[in-house]
Amino acid sequence: MGAGNGQRQEPEGLPLIDGVPIKRVMSLPSSSHAPVSVSGKKLLVANRSEIAIRVFRAATELGMRTVAIYAQEDKLSMHRFKADEAYQVGEGKGPVGAYLDIEGIIGLAKEQGVDMIHPGYGFLSENADFAEACDKAGITFVGPRRELLAMMGDKTTARALAQKLNVPTLPGTEDPVTDRKGALKIAREIGFPLIIKAAFGGGGRGMRVVLKEADLEPLLDEARNEAGRAFGNSAVFLEKYIPRAKHLEVQILGDRHGHVLHLHERDCSVQRRHQKVVEVAPSIGLAEPVRNALCEAAARIANGIGYDNAGTVEFLYDLDRAEWFFIEMNPRIQVEHTVTEQITGIDLVRSQILVAAGASLHGPELDMPAQNAVPRNGYAVQCRITTEDPANQFMPNYGKLITYRSAAGFGVRLDSGMGTTGSVITPFYDSLLTKVTTSGQTFPMALQRMQRALREFRIRGVKTNIPFLENVIANGDFRSGLATTTLIDTTPALFDFKPRRDRATKLLAFLADVTVNGNPQAKGHKPAAAFPPPPRPSYDHREIPRDGTRQLLLELGPERFAEWTRSQKRLLFTDTTFRDAHQSLLATRVRTYDMLSVADALARRTPELFSLEMWGGATFDAAMRFLKEDPWERLHELRKRIPNICFQMLLRGSNAVGYSNYPPNVVKGFVKHAAESGMDIF
């Protein structure tokens, strides 16, 4: 497929001679390249969630030590627990600003002895200033050189470069748009419909389709504001919009020895709000001449600029005119890189790290084949499972995952960032929950596996887009390769799905409610209103509890205390409330927390009590089985709060506090430990 087989020359400035791009012909390197190893080095990922975990795994395989960063709002995110070290950054800068804090991230990296920084995707991944800050700090940036980020991260500069390399581009602005008046003038020259795009980022952020002139100004403001929040730069540009287009992209991988490979194309046409939802590699039904031309053009651009890491060259293919156009180059790893890895067998993230460390694509560390031998085995499909409600205009859904059961099996790959039971989905970040990638020898086989995998998922606590994804995978246009970027907007049938019945969760919730609170229908009673909070007894916090029977027992000893008790003519009162908390109607409802709430008042207001009954036959059963509490810990804490009144318990002979006959030595040992823990009377 064309480009990428020769040794690159190094011209000064833009690598063109008389307007013609310099071709690179890749040759396998000689054995003179020194071996490259990153084992023992420390790598920090300046990102979060799924992509951070993906990089940690590749780095760990290479023998590296990994470092995570996290914002205060992200302190429970799984990625921080997947790294060897984790540190909070960007204090006071907000959930997104923390991950854009170049000074703070670099300062932390230097302080912790970090050797390499991987930016992931989004956030600072296309920020040339971040790459430069890494260089100045003596830290290797895992990505292309700073000047390449500046060149290709700026979408308008990338368009200009593509034009000089004779790669077709859509009509659009040569420079970022900065004001409304200028934008209107340019828009009239381009013609409507057109699209506004962020100049320094991707992922659908800062992107708006403008169908008519009256919509330009408000949509321009929206796009600029969104781009500024997402990428720290509000610059945008305008481009002609193609209504019926396929979004195709070619994966590029270069090194610092003059080699570039393309790893074939993938189809990312299924999009919602300009964000990819389902990706396929290779593209289905694409004519081979078009496929070859796209890959050759991508390699030509990468060769022309001396590209030296992983990147993606993106194109639009106009189905009506059978024409393709360059739209941008993303100088970073992409969310959808998994489908390329599945069909080529090449680990892109591992390659990124080794290339940044100086390895050659064709050296022993990476051992990649020549261009015409790069594998393309079978087909792969990726679905992005998000916590969005497709029945409610994909409204993001937040909350705690009370159940998470993922798919597995042959041909199924999962890349997850928050996919565990108990994870809390917050409103601060992208709604991506997990990426599921399936592969097979044929496209129908890969789709069958995807359908099976989506059905296997059980996610409860938040709503997901899984029912919607199932409809996309079953859609006829998608399966035949005819899906365009407007498939979701023009196919109402994708939203005709059965809501999840969630029978198991509902049944468990009902059983739990009835077990703890009783069945309101059977009991014939339903409270008219919520119970008011119980009042806590008042007492003087400054008062030291007066001496009581506990001090008398310690002074007289057991035998003389028993004699004193028998000699009393007055009534001696035992309060059984704490024991009744384990049996009677209060069972399983009164926690240690509730008992401690009144303990201080009891010690000060009722020192005349003979004793407080603590344990009975049901104590251990209720505390441990229902409340998941430790009755020994409860006894210790109550004794601290009530030092002046004797504690007593019911000891049922050889049954002790259980429901079986125990050997005498067991009962004796139990009494000994109970007495040491604060129990006085048995």
Roughly what fraction of the amino acids lie in strands?
15-25%
The largest beta-sheet arranges its strands as: 15-14-11-12-13-16-23-21
Overall pLDDT score: 88
Quaternary structure classification:
single chain
- What is the helix content? 25-40%
| Helix-strand category | alpha+beta
Number of helices: 22
Shape: elongated
What does this entry look like structurally?
It contains 22 helices and 27 strands. The strands form eight sheets. It has an eight-stranded antiparallel beta sheet, with helices on both faces. The chain has a five-stranded parallel beta sheet with strand order 5-4-3-6-7. The protein has a three-stranded antiparallel beta sheet with strand order 9-8-10, with helices on one face. The longest helix is centred in the C-terminal third of the chain and has 19 residues, at 549-567. Residues 1-31 have low confidence and may be disordered. Helix 12 (443-456) runs antiparallel to helix 13 (466-474). It is of the alpha+beta class and 682 residues long. Helices cover 34% and strands 19% of the residues. The relative contact order is 0.08. Strand 11 and strand 12 (260-272) form a beta hairpin.
